[in-house]
Amino acid sequence: MLATLVVAGGIAIVGACQGTDKKEAGGTPGTVARAVDVSSCSKSSDCVVESQMDCCPCNAGGRQVAVRKKSLEAYRAARAARCSGDLLCPQVYLCDDAATAVCVAGRCEIAGGGAAAGR
């Protein structure tokens, strides 16, 4: 089971597998939990715009998100696990083509001039 938590303007992905015999170092059998930092930064070049915040991409009714470059693959993998199965996404283009990812107060955020920015 995976959950997404919005934390102080950023997103933390927490993954957990319950009911298994797997465990991480220091964990207990039956629970595996790992937090992935996907939004911390020290400069804007640490961040990148990802076109898919949740299960639907911005070109199909979803939202864009600013993600820490080093965590992009982990972010995508967690989202893919969370969004498996049949999905119905509205065919509405909500991408902000002018959006950029910037570092604001230590967090990656979307900046841009279009209507989809900052949603």
What does this protein look like?
By secondary structure, this protein is mostly beta strands. It has one domain. Helix content is 9%, strand content 34%. The chain contains one helix and seven strands, in the order βββββαββ. The strands form three sheets. Strands 1-2-3 form a three-stranded antiparallel sheet, with helices on one face. The protein has a two-stranded antiparallel ribbon with strand order 4-5. The two termini are 26 Å apart.
Strand content: 25-35%
The major beta sheet can be summarized as: 3 strands, antiparallel
Biggest sheet, spatial arrangement of strands = 1-2-3
- N- and C-termini, Cα separation: 26 Å
User: What letter string, H or E per element, gives the SSE order?
Assistant: EEEEEHEE
Which class do the helix and strand fractions yield? mainly beta
Shape: flat
Query: Whole-number average pLDDT?
Result: 75
Count all strands and give the number: 7
Tell me the number of structural domains.
1
Helix percentage: under 10%
> What is the count of helical runs?
1
- Unreliable residue stretches: 1-33, 115-119
Alpha-carbon Rg, integer: 16 Å
Give the secondary structure arrangement, pairings included.
Blueprint: E1 2-7, E2 10-18, E3 31-37, E4 47-50, E5 65-68, H1 72-82, E6 100-104, E7 107-111
Antiparallel strand pairs: 1-2, 2-3, 4-5, 6-7
What descriptors fit this protein?
flat; three-stranded antiparallel β-sheet; two-stranded antiparallel ribbon; single chain; disordered C terminus; 7 strands; 119 residues; 1 helix; mainly beta; 34% strand; disordered N terminus
